[in-house]
Predict the structure.
Amino acid sequence: MLDTIEKVINKISISSKDFLDIRYAYAMGESFTVRNGRFDSVSNQTTGGVAIRALIGNAWGFTTIVDIDEESILKSAEKAVRIAKIGSQFAKQERMIKDDWVFEGEGGTKLEIDPREIDKETKFEKIVQTEKAAREFSDRIAETSSTYRESHSKEFIINNKGTKVENENHVVRIMKNVVAREGTEMQSVFDSIGGAGGWELIQKWEPEKEGLKAAEMGLKLLSARKPPSGRMNVIMDPSLTGVFVHEAFGHACEADAVIAKQSVLEGRINNKVGVEEINVYDDPTLPGLRGSFDYDSEGTKARKRTLVENGILKEYFHTLETASALDMEPNGSGRAMNFNFTPLARMGNTYVDSGDKSLEEIAELTKEGVYLKNSYGGYVMPAKGQFYFSCQLGYIIENGEMTDMIGNVGMSGMTLEVFENTYAVGKNWKPKFLGTCGKQGQGIPVTAGGPDLGVSNIVIGGNQ
Amino acid sequence: MSDKINLHELAEKVIKLGLSFGADQVEAYTVYGAARNVQLERGSIRRFTDVANSGLGVRVIKDKAIGMASTTIFSHESIESTVKDAYSLAKVSPPDENFKTLPEDTRSTPEIKGCFDQNIIDLSVEGFTEMILEGVQEAQVRDDAIIGGSFTAGNGERFIISSQGIDRFSKQTSITGYLSVKIQDGEDIGNAYYFDSSKVLADFDHLIVGKEAGNRALKMLGSQKIESATLPILLDPDSCMGTISPIISSGINAFSVFNRTAYFVDKIGDAIASDKLSITDDPFYPGGVDSSAFDDEGVVSKKLELVRDGILNTYITDSYTAPLVGLDNTGHASRGSFASRPTPSTYSLDIKAGETAKDTLLEDLKEGILMIGSSIIDMSGNPQISAQINQGFYVKDGEVQYPVKNAMIGTTVFEVFEKIEDFSKEQQNRHGHKSPWMLLSPLQVSGAK
């Protein structure tokens, strides 16, 4: 495939100042869900095609094609150049990609046990037993489901500057979801494990134990205290710290948002954005996490990014274009969901690094407030710097001690205030938020995490 | 569509192949779509995109077990291996005793006018760009306004063929776009967006998109934190639809009803809301952005009165869920993509207007919150709602005072429906999605002050 793409690149005549890359991406995956004792979905998916980007003058042209013969790709590449030229007539912002960054190589997720060699019955067994254990626990468990997913993707990337990269990714995941119901009161419990790797990441999932744990928690939440409302001190667990550092802070660090003037972190490199105890990294080279990869979808070698060091903002997430525009180094953040999309500045495995406080010490410092656990996800308005996250459960903190459990509730705050209002950073960061990050219609696997974090002035949206 | 592929022939081939492997029933769902997109950055063109997407989803039934497979690659080998995969998965899956049959529907396909416009297909890149830049000009309410956005013009075809005699075809065009505007005075940020979407070029209002995005961004300047309080909430038509639509869609979906996780289980014939609420779902609205003559299983859709004067009339069903809840198939099967299994979903909701003028609703508000372009929903899917006020204003003595910053609403879906106090007589019609202004009795608002 690389040869075919290379031939097309060589046939397209553009100025050396312009940019052209061609990416062939192929992916296959399978997904099984068992719900309430029956198979809800048993499916596999294959996608494949070629994506062509041309930056001519100051505008991009982007085309895709599913036919992979040389003639079809050439025709599509010519169209990408043609529409980029038209766009450039209307474009006012200067845009270019430097010649400095050329990458060659092959990368891929390490697989100890290739999940494609595990028979389907073994995979079914894991989810069937998880779901069954939860379902049979109580008649107040209204709905139970468990899902297994694996995906295997390959990309070939060549550009006119000399980059030539082949990269493979393999991602596996097993999930459980329980809905407990009593009258009109419902509470959900969700959890999952998995990452970039093979069946070895799934083996440690003990189905019965996982099913029971979810069901027990669902029932407990039915009788949990109603969450409070108003502004208060909050301890975010590693999952919520993860969702904050990804959704609120991480998206604001994406250099395409910075250049578009849609980020509250624009112009703040080397400025203080938090207390000195705050260190934030994103590391796609950590093995076995959902956001782990060797090369991004532009062919740039992935590396660890230091976003915040001792409370000072140090780095953004870059594509080749954003690094050129801001005169910084690319850091392998140009990720695309599949051949139908262009690479955007994206995260991998983002986390707040550990501090030195135990959870008990943080609760003591909190005095009055809430400890919130297990994120459901959330959203953020990066231009305004306001975020909203939903969490599954929490505990009231009274006189520095955890007391009553509370059910699911949302929290809201201002991105730039959280790290400034952090009064305690916990020990032992954990990659607890396993997500599929959405941006401009593209969903990509990511992990986020951190330690327990004590933060003041967070708004809690309860009804008490 | 691609001159190399005939989607109907391809779908027929899938059915034959599946049956030849030994399947009891087979369904092929094929789609083709072409889209041109223009992305804007800081008020200027950033990228033109021209993509063609196609996909095949295959559902195979063997001894009541269901296997599904999909592909975007339409080579002979790929099609054959996709059908084989679906069959193999059905063979190894346990039977689903709830499954009765794939649907049969020999009724002719109703015609819905205004769903296809050749002008969208003929729109040149230059013409499209000039139109978008006119919208940008409207959004430029101040020289320093930061404008971003994205516009897409596209067309698509869909074939659904099954071994049970389903043979349907539809084609449509669409044009959709949004602009976001950010205005900054020091630390004070005003940020808003607005969108429009249509199946007909002449009905797409790019100028309103720019004008509304710009004016709303100006209005969002000067936001303030408020104290926690119990306050009535007035929702504009977009916020009303954004709140009511997800609650009713999840609440009466027969799949969730069967699983006992729908909000309104066992509530047909009962009051689920204030008697002010009446909702109709209309799949046949001419030119409606979500209108469709048949559902994603090829069953002819049905106009339904979902709620009348607060009383729930029906659930929405598809072929799998209709027998499970003891209702007819209402033709509401919907797939997230060609690769997904269908589940019931609504088309275009018409929320009945009231009799009070919207200005009166605002003037009569002694103290409360006005929400625009937002919604009161929760991400958890549970009935408890803990929602952020994304674009809201504090109102005192019938006058809008200032935008609120970092505030939330804590409630439940049941409380929202019960507390519907009034609807405006004015009704916004977003190409089939019709919604008035809605006033809710006091709800718990969490402030950051």
Summary: Chain A is about 25% helix and 40% strand. Chain A has a mean pLDDT of 95. The first strand of chain A starts at residue 19 and ends at 35.
